[in-house]
User: What shape does this take?
Amino acid sequence: MEHVSNLILIDSDSRRRASISHALAASSIHVEPFENIDELANAWPRSGVIMIHDEAGSIPDLIEKMAADGEWYPIIAFSEYLAPRRIVEAVLDGAIDYVAWPLDSEELNEALARAVDKSDASGSTKLREVMARSRLDRLTKREREVLDGVASGLSNRLIGEKLAISPRTVEIHRANMLNKLGANHTSEAIRIAIEAAMVN
Assistant: This one.
């Protein structure tokens, strides 16, 4: 297990933020406290694990921000009350772990090490999905239909027949689609579609 010494703390409650920082000051964990995601985005640390207070929309907002800025950190959500439904939602949103505060520095160290291990194992799947989705959002409805056809292994002629357009028009949509996705090859476009969970 890799030892984590940098904890990026995001919590809008200044008293709790101060008490967490104070509680961990005696341990080997260095805490970088931030009031909110925007404050963190102004000064992304070189490395670390993010521990964010679980509030409505906080984890999806954080992941969107990381995707927009091309940053990636494992995320641990925390709150004072462990509600099973919130834990499930937080993990589905992209958190790697969920802890109850208060917890001692040894428990936190274990949670941080677990987060790094899980993050290394799963890569930044959620981040890649968000980034791929934002790329797909640039496509027109017709370009998405062409991408769908390409991902299904259809030729330009068959895509054209399916969409009732000429193969030449399919070619134009295909070129525009690759361009908007920033993909050099069709295989890259398909990978982006898979990462965006558009293709099963």
